[in-house]
Amino acid sequence: MKHRLYIDEVGNASLQSSHDPLHRYLSLTALIMEIKHVSEYLHPKLEELKKKYFSKHHPDDPIILHRKELVNANYPFQELRDSNVRISFEKDVLDLIETADYKIITVVIDKKEQLKKYKVWQYDPYHYSLMILLERYYLYLSANNIMGDVFAESRGGRDDRRLKKSFRRLYDEGTNKIPEIKSRITSCEIKIKPKSSNIAGLQLADLIAHPSFKSTYCRRNNQPLPDNFGGQIAEILEKTKYRRKPGVGDPLGRIWGWGRIWLP
Questions:
Q1: Section 185-196 average pLDDT
Q2: Which of 7, 108, 124, 208 is the one with CA 20 to 30 A from 214?
Q3: What pLDDT was estimated at residue 122?
Q4: CATH for 3-263 (2.10.109.10, 3.30.365.10, 3.40.50.2300, 3.30.420.10)
Q5: Residue 24 CB-half CA count within 13 A
Q6: How do residues 110-140 score in pLDDT, each as one tens digit?
Q7: Cis omega before residue 224 (within 30°)?
Protein backbone atom coordinates (compact mmCIF):
# COMPACT_ATOMS: atom_id res chain seq x y z
CA MET A 1 0.00 0.00 0.00
CA LYS A 2 2.46 2.61 -1.23
CA HIS A 3 1.53 6.28 -0.93
CA ARG A 4 2.74 9.42 -2.66
CA LEU A 5 3.12 13.01 -1.52
CA TYR A 6 2.23 15.59 -4.21
CA ILE A 7 3.49 19.12 -3.54
CA ASP A 8 2.18 22.43 -4.88
CA GLU A 9 3.22 25.93 -3.88
CA VAL A 10 1.55 29.32 -3.56
CA GLY A 11 3.77 32.39 -3.56
CA ASN A 12 7.53 32.49 -4.03
CA ALA A 13 10.55 31.67 -1.92
CA SER A 14 12.41 34.96 -2.37
CA LEU A 15 13.20 36.66 0.93
CA GLN A 16 13.79 39.91 -0.98
CA SER A 17 10.03 40.12 -1.65
CA SER A 18 9.04 39.55 1.98
CA HIS A 19 8.06 43.20 2.59
CA ASP A 20 5.68 43.22 -0.37
CA PRO A 21 2.18 42.42 0.99
CA LEU A 22 1.40 40.48 -2.19
CA HIS A 23 4.48 38.28 -1.82
CA ARG A 24 4.93 38.08 1.94
CA TYR A 25 3.90 34.44 2.30
CA LEU A 26 5.03 31.14 0.84
CA SER A 27 2.71 28.17 1.20
CA LEU A 28 3.39 24.54 0.36
CA THR A 29 0.47 22.14 0.27
CA ALA A 30 1.11 18.41 0.20
CA LEU A 31 -1.53 15.91 -0.85
CA ILE A 32 -1.04 12.34 0.42
CA MET A 33 -2.71 9.62 -1.64
CA GLU A 34 -2.30 5.90 -2.18
CA ILE A 35 -0.75 5.36 -5.62
CA LYS A 36 -3.34 2.71 -6.48
CA HIS A 37 -6.12 5.22 -5.76
CA VAL A 38 -4.47 7.68 -8.16
CA SER A 39 -4.54 5.23 -11.06
CA GLU A 40 -7.91 3.62 -10.31
CA TYR A 41 -9.92 6.66 -9.21
CA LEU A 42 -8.33 10.10 -9.41
CA HIS A 43 -6.84 9.97 -12.91
CA PRO A 44 -9.98 8.52 -14.57
CA LYS A 45 -12.21 11.02 -12.76
CA LEU A 46 -10.10 13.99 -13.83
CA GLU A 47 -10.02 12.83 -17.44
CA GLU A 48 -13.79 12.32 -17.36
CA LEU A 49 -14.20 15.86 -16.00
CA LYS A 50 -12.04 17.35 -18.75
CA LYS A 51 -13.85 15.45 -21.49
CA LYS A 52 -17.25 16.52 -20.14
CA TYR A 53 -16.55 20.25 -20.04
CA PHE A 54 -13.69 21.19 -22.36
CA SER A 55 -13.87 20.70 -26.11
CA LYS A 56 -10.11 21.03 -26.57
CA HIS A 57 -9.36 17.99 -24.41
CA HIS A 58 -7.97 15.00 -26.31
CA PRO A 59 -5.99 11.95 -25.11
CA ASP A 60 -3.12 12.86 -27.45
CA ASP A 61 -3.05 16.44 -26.21
CA PRO A 62 -4.67 16.49 -22.76
CA ILE A 63 -5.80 19.66 -21.06
CA ILE A 64 -3.99 20.28 -17.78
CA LEU A 65 -6.16 21.66 -15.00
CA HIS A 66 -4.62 24.82 -13.59
CA ARG A 67 -6.47 26.87 -11.01
CA LYS A 68 -5.57 30.38 -12.21
CA GLU A 69 -6.65 29.74 -15.80
CA LEU A 70 -9.81 27.99 -14.59
CA VAL A 71 -10.79 30.91 -12.34
CA ASN A 72 -10.31 33.39 -15.18
CA ALA A 73 -11.86 31.06 -17.80
CA ASN A 74 -8.82 31.55 -20.01
CA TYR A 75 -8.12 29.29 -22.99
CA PRO A 76 -8.54 26.30 -23.06
CA PHE A 77 -11.20 26.74 -20.37
CA GLN A 78 -13.33 29.28 -22.23
CA GLU A 79 -16.45 27.13 -21.78
CA LEU A 80 -16.48 28.33 -18.15
CA ARG A 81 -17.49 31.81 -19.33
CA ASP A 82 -21.00 30.37 -19.49
CA SER A 83 -22.32 30.75 -15.93
CA ASN A 84 -24.43 27.57 -16.12
CA VAL A 85 -21.43 25.54 -17.28
CA ARG A 86 -19.30 27.03 -14.49
CA ILE A 87 -21.86 26.16 -11.83
CA SER A 88 -22.04 22.57 -13.04
CA PHE A 89 -18.26 22.29 -13.34
CA GLU A 90 -17.63 23.66 -9.85
CA LYS A 91 -20.17 21.24 -8.39
CA ASP A 92 -18.38 18.30 -10.04
CA VAL A 93 -15.00 19.56 -8.81
CA LEU A 94 -16.32 19.85 -5.26
CA ASP A 95 -17.71 16.32 -5.49
CA LEU A 96 -14.32 15.02 -6.63
CA ILE A 97 -12.46 16.89 -3.89
CA GLU A 98 -14.84 15.45 -1.32
CA THR A 99 -15.00 11.85 -2.55
CA ALA A 100 -11.34 11.25 -3.37
CA ASP A 101 -9.40 9.55 -0.59
CA TYR A 102 -6.44 11.66 0.58
CA LYS A 103 -5.03 13.79 3.37
CA ILE A 104 -3.36 17.15 3.10
CA ILE A 105 -0.76 19.14 4.99
CA THR A 106 -0.25 22.87 4.39
CA VAL A 107 2.79 24.81 5.58
CA VAL A 108 2.71 28.61 5.47
CA ILE A 109 5.81 30.66 6.13
CA ASP A 110 5.65 34.40 6.84
CA LYS A 111 8.87 35.52 5.17
CA LYS A 112 8.75 38.96 6.75
CA GLU A 113 8.57 37.48 10.25
CA GLN A 114 11.26 34.97 9.39
CA LEU A 115 13.64 37.78 8.51
CA LYS A 116 12.82 39.53 11.79
CA LYS A 117 13.30 36.42 13.89
CA TYR A 118 16.40 35.05 12.21
CA LYS A 119 18.91 37.82 11.56
CA VAL A 120 21.72 35.45 10.59
CA TRP A 121 20.11 32.09 9.86
CA GLN A 122 18.07 32.64 6.72
CA TYR A 123 17.29 29.17 5.41
CA ASP A 124 15.64 29.12 1.98
CA PRO A 125 11.88 29.36 2.75
CA TYR A 126 10.97 26.67 0.21
CA HIS A 127 13.47 24.17 1.56
CA TYR A 128 12.62 25.03 5.17
CA SER A 129 8.94 24.39 4.42
CA LEU A 130 9.87 21.17 2.60
CA MET A 131 11.70 19.94 5.68
CA ILE A 132 8.62 20.54 7.85
CA LEU A 133 6.42 18.77 5.29
CA LEU A 134 8.69 15.74 5.17
CA GLU A 135 8.69 15.47 8.96
CA ARG A 136 4.88 15.47 9.02
CA TYR A 137 4.76 13.05 6.08
CA TYR A 138 7.08 10.67 7.90
CA LEU A 139 4.86 10.82 11.00
CA TYR A 140 1.78 10.08 8.88
CA LEU A 141 3.45 7.11 7.17
CA SER A 142 4.78 5.79 10.46
CA ALA A 143 1.43 6.11 12.25
CA ASN A 144 -0.25 4.10 9.47
CA ASN A 145 2.66 1.66 9.02
CA ILE A 146 2.99 2.43 5.31
CA MET A 147 5.68 3.59 2.88
CA GLY A 148 5.71 6.41 0.35
CA ASP A 149 7.64 8.64 -2.00
CA VAL A 150 7.51 12.33 -2.97
CA PHE A 151 6.45 14.10 -6.18
CA ALA A 152 6.80 17.84 -6.84
CA GLU A 153 5.99 20.18 -9.67
CA SER A 154 8.99 21.38 -11.67
CA ARG A 155 10.10 24.95 -10.92
CA GLY A 156 12.80 25.13 -13.59
CA GLY A 157 16.40 24.02 -14.08
CA ARG A 158 18.36 25.65 -11.23
CA ASP A 159 15.49 25.43 -8.73
CA ASP A 160 14.91 21.77 -9.58
CA ARG A 161 18.58 20.94 -9.09
CA ARG A 162 18.61 22.68 -5.71
CA LEU A 163 15.41 20.91 -4.71
CA LYS A 164 16.82 17.51 -5.61
CA LYS A 165 19.97 18.26 -3.63
CA SER A 166 18.00 19.46 -0.60
CA PHE A 167 15.69 16.45 -0.68
CA ARG A 168 18.62 14.04 -0.97
CA ARG A 169 20.28 15.65 2.05
CA LEU A 170 17.10 15.35 4.11
CA TYR A 171 16.72 11.74 2.99
CA ASP A 172 20.32 10.83 3.87
CA GLU A 173 20.69 12.82 7.09
CA GLY A 174 17.13 13.27 8.32
CA THR A 175 16.31 16.27 10.51
CA ASN A 176 17.11 17.18 14.11
CA LYS A 177 13.67 15.93 15.13
CA ILE A 178 13.49 12.89 12.83
CA PRO A 179 16.89 11.51 11.80
CA GLU A 180 15.32 8.33 10.39
CA ILE A 181 13.10 9.93 7.71
CA LYS A 182 14.40 7.59 5.00
CA SER A 183 13.06 4.56 6.84
CA ARG A 184 9.59 5.41 5.49
CA ILE A 185 10.55 7.00 2.14
CA THR A 186 11.01 4.51 -0.69
CA SER A 187 13.29 6.60 -2.92
CA CYS A 188 16.27 8.84 -2.25
CA GLU A 189 15.27 10.94 -5.27
CA ILE A 190 12.33 13.33 -5.35
CA LYS A 191 10.26 12.93 -8.50
CA ILE A 192 9.93 16.22 -10.38
CA LYS A 193 7.78 16.79 -13.45
CA PRO A 194 5.95 19.76 -14.97
CA LYS A 195 2.15 19.90 -14.85
CA SER A 196 2.21 19.45 -18.62
CA SER A 197 3.00 15.78 -17.94
CA ASN A 198 -0.67 15.39 -16.92
CA ILE A 199 0.08 14.17 -13.39
CA ALA A 200 -3.30 13.73 -11.71
CA GLY A 201 -2.00 14.22 -8.16
CA LEU A 202 -0.27 17.48 -9.06
CA GLN A 203 -3.43 18.79 -10.71
CA LEU A 204 -5.57 18.03 -7.67
CA ALA A 205 -2.90 19.60 -5.45
CA ASP A 206 -3.01 22.70 -7.66
CA LEU A 207 -6.80 22.97 -7.24
CA ILE A 208 -6.65 22.86 -3.44
CA ALA A 209 -3.34 24.62 -2.67
CA HIS A 210 -4.59 28.23 -2.91
CA PRO A 211 -7.86 27.62 -1.02
CA SER A 212 -5.85 25.83 1.66
CA PHE A 213 -3.42 28.74 1.96
CA LYS A 214 -6.22 31.33 2.10
CA SER A 215 -8.18 29.38 4.69
CA THR A 216 -5.07 28.84 6.80
CA TYR A 217 -4.39 32.59 6.68
CA CYS A 218 -8.01 33.36 7.60
CA ARG A 219 -8.07 30.93 10.54
CA ARG A 220 -4.74 32.28 11.76
CA ASN A 221 -6.19 35.80 11.79
CA ASN A 222 -9.63 34.82 13.17
CA GLN A 223 -11.35 35.68 9.90
CA PRO A 224 -14.20 33.76 8.23
CA LEU A 225 -13.53 31.57 5.23
CA PRO A 226 -13.90 33.34 1.86
CA ASP A 227 -17.45 33.36 0.52
CA ASN A 228 -16.53 31.89 -2.87
CA PHE A 229 -15.63 28.65 -4.63
CA GLY A 230 -12.28 28.54 -2.82
CA GLY A 231 -14.10 28.86 0.50
CA GLN A 232 -16.29 25.90 -0.44
CA ILE A 233 -13.16 23.86 -1.15
CA ALA A 234 -11.72 24.93 2.20
CA GLU A 235 -14.85 23.74 4.02
CA ILE A 236 -14.40 20.27 2.57
CA LEU A 237 -10.71 20.23 3.47
CA GLU A 238 -11.46 21.25 7.07
CA LYS A 239 -14.21 18.69 7.39
CA THR A 240 -12.31 15.54 6.37
CA LYS A 241 -9.06 16.12 4.49
CA TYR A 242 -6.53 17.79 6.78
CA ARG A 243 -4.26 15.53 8.77
CA ARG A 244 -5.32 16.06 12.37
CA LYS A 245 -4.48 15.01 15.89
CA PRO A 246 -6.56 12.01 17.00
CA GLY A 247 -8.99 12.40 19.86
CA VAL A 248 -11.86 14.54 21.00
CA GLY A 249 -12.08 18.30 21.06
CA ASP A 250 -12.38 21.16 18.59
CA PRO A 251 -11.87 19.68 15.08
CA LEU A 252 -10.25 22.87 13.81
CA GLY A 253 -7.98 23.06 16.84
CA ARG A 254 -6.76 19.54 16.17
CA ILE A 255 -5.64 20.53 12.66
CA TRP A 256 -3.02 23.06 13.82
CA GLY A 257 0.42 21.49 14.04
CA TRP A 258 -0.80 18.43 12.15
CA GLY A 259 -2.44 19.46 8.89
CA ARG A 260 -1.71 23.17 9.18
CA ILE A 261 1.68 24.57 10.16
CA TRP A 262 2.46 28.28 10.43
CA LEU A 263 6.10 29.39 10.41
CA PRO A 264 8.08 30.83 12.06
A1: 92
A2: 124
A3: 63
A4: 3.30.420.10
A5: 11
A6: 999 988 887 655 678 888 999 999 999 999 9
A7: no
